[in-house]
Design goal:
This protein is an alpha/beta fold. It has helices spanning 37-45, 52-68, 75-86, 94-106, 111-134, 152-162, 179-190, 203-208, 234-244, 272-275; strands spanning 10-13, 16-20, 31-34, 142-145, 168-172, 195-198, 214-218, 221-222, 228-231, 248-252, 268-269, 276-277, 280-281, 291-292, 294-297, 304-307. Helix 2 packs parallel to helix 4, helix 2 packs antiparallel against helix 5 and helix 3 runs antiparallel to helix 4 (94-106). The longest helix has 24 residues, at 111-134.
Length: 310
């Protein structure tokens, strides 16, 4: 089974973390060297890794700090690290992850052993999730996707291919970081999977023309009632899918303690990220910008939640 570099973009080597810097893809595969938790927070805030990469970075950061301190950190030290990581991005439920770590420490368990076990379970759960998604597709399906789900789409396509089913994808560009056109298109092309890039505003027309017959996205946050928060633009895709009768599937993380989508805090990122890209000004000086990074899709617009099971 082959994996995209985005499937597991963080690893621990000695006393430093290696983090695939997604902001340089597809032009170059560069790994950041992270040596402390404050640097991890900066990497998360700067979107140098995202989605599963941020989950991995949170958990590996605890392992890194433990290694640096001979495997011994007080609960107070772990709480300090947890608070810093929790503050990195408000919409992502890092408190679920850091809360597990603090719970293990407070119970006197080996935090290193429990984190290592969690990461192995996470890897297996992602593979199983891809398998469940692959079972929903038929040969010849043309699948619209949004943003990037960190290595799962190439894996889904491979599992389909192993069953004699060939599928292809349409990927929205997802500005301002262009995850669809940079990351999704890159990893699908690298895996030999047909992919067509469209702008975010073309999705309704593509559905109207019946160029796609299914949609699959990820989710950064799952509420207890099935509402999800995902990359901004997911809601409008779900609304269009309902109108055109296109099945809308979501690859979900474990649910948080949020009762519904209204309880999920939406991260509003700096407007300047919309106004320029890699130093190139995209709008006139002095204009305003508003950038909510996520939106909430209600459960009733989702055909099937594809759960990550631990």
């Amino acid at each position: 089974m082959r994996f995209s570099p985005l499937f597991w973009p963080v690893f621990l080597k000695g006393k430093e973390l290696n983090v695939l810097d997604e902001t340089f893809l597809p032009g170059a595969s560069r790994y950041l060297k992270v040596t402390g938790y404050r640097q991890s927070v900066r990497v998360i805030r700067r979107m140098q890794t995202r989605a599963i990469g941020q989950v991995l970075l949170v958990m590996y950061t605890f392992l890194l700090e433990l290694k640096k301190n001979g495997g011994r950190l007080s609960v107070q030290d772990l709480e300090k690290i947890a608070q810093a990581l929790n503050s990195a991005r408000p919409t992502l439920p890092f408190k679920m992850l850091t809360g597990m770590v603090l719970g293990w420490a407070q119970a006197g368990e080996s935090v290193e052993r429990r984190i290592s076990g969690f990461l192995e379970e996470l890897k297996s759960a992602r593979i199983e999730q891809a398998g469940e998604a692959a079972a929903l597709f038929e040969g010849g399906d043309s699948v619209l996707t949004h943003c990037n789900v960190s290595g799962l789409l190439p894996l889904i396509a491979e599992l389909c291919r192993n069953k004699g089913k060939s599928i292809s994808f349409y990927a929205t560009e997802t500005r301002p970081y262009w995850q669809g056109s940079r990351l999704t298109a890159w990893e699908l092309k690298k895996a030999g999977v047909p992919v067509t890039v469209i702008t975010d505003g073309m999705a309704a027309q593509v559905m109207k023309e019946r160029r796609v017959n299914k949609i699959i996205t990820g989710a950064d946050h799952l509420a207890l009632n099935g509402d999800i928060a995902n990359k901004i633009g997911t809601l409008q895709l779900a609304i269009c899918a309902k109108y055109f009768g296109v099945p809308f599937y979501v690859l979900c993380p474990p649910p948080s303690q949020a009762a519904c989508g209204e309880d999920i805090k939406i991260e509003v990122r700096p407007g300047r990220e919309l106004l320029s890209y890699r130093g190139l000004r995209l709008a006139p000086a002095g204009v305003n910008a508003y950038y909510p990074a996520f939106d909430v899709t209600p459960a009733e617009l989702i055909t099937k939640h594809i759960h990550m099971r631990f």
